[in-house]
Amino acid sequence: MLLHDKSSGSQFQTIFFCLLALVMMAGCIVIPVPTGEKPYYDGAIPNLEVGVTRKSEVLQELGVPDVTYHRGSELIYITTQESWKIAWASIIPNPDPKYSDRSSWEVEGFSGVGTVHKRFVLSLSFDTQDTLSAFEADTAGDDLGDCTSHGICLGNTNAVMRYADSLTESAAKGFKPNKDQCSIYLHGLGNKKAYEVSLNGKIPVSIFSTGAFIHWITKPGPQSLVIFPEPAFLDFDCKAGEVVFVHFDLIRPGPSRLRLKSNATGREHLSGRRLVLLPTG
Hints:
This protein is mainly β and 281 residues long. The protein has two domains: 8-162, no CATH class; 166-276, Immunoglobulin-like. It has helices at 8-26, 55-62, 166-172, 263-270, and strands spanning 28-34, 67-69, 74-94, 106-126, 132-140, 146-147, 152-154, 160-162, 182-187, 195-199, 205-207, 212-218, 221-228, 232-238, 243-248, 258-261, 274-276. It is globular, with a radius of gyration of 24 Å. The two termini are 27 Å apart.
């Protein structure tokens, strides 16, 4: 078994008894039902050996990854190990002041069904010979923007936002593009909303944190930046050796929320933010 969470049973017991206490206090009935969902990679690879396991073996066993980085040298798989359907109903007495008899009380109530689950993230890195060089198995919560301890953050539909390592981020904050390239920085997205960002029709980047920024190195010339699901568009030019800073204004309505910023302002805004990696597949 590739991943095993020994604490899942005790955690559920804690949740169950807390919910039971709420039932007793508020007249609320809560019924947790396990769905039996398991990771699709659970047991598929009994052993991952650094320096031995090949990328072709992983792809054969696990299939196409949810997202790849570093030109395909990092594969990330996301799934759920354990899910619970939570059904609840609440009955709230609403006494009529004219009567003291409980049987004459009116009753108000509400009900619903929700899902509680834990997401597992498996990240595998391969060297230039497509041999496993490192792997990390971690968990993330069910909320938008929950991150693993290794900097992999998940949206509510398994969208992935991957923070860069410190060396890559330091290089991006050097603001020194090659003379024949254009360097573009975008920040301001997030605020617990999931956005998809695409430059010139390339693979979209997921971002859902105002404390993050994106960096592209591209060919000089006309550039087209698009953001969804709340549409925003910006067409601009970027010359060879130029650094361009773009800010997404969360307050400003409509597609004109993307604004160009001065070099000084852009650098200042990026100083406390973390770099998000560009996916390659």
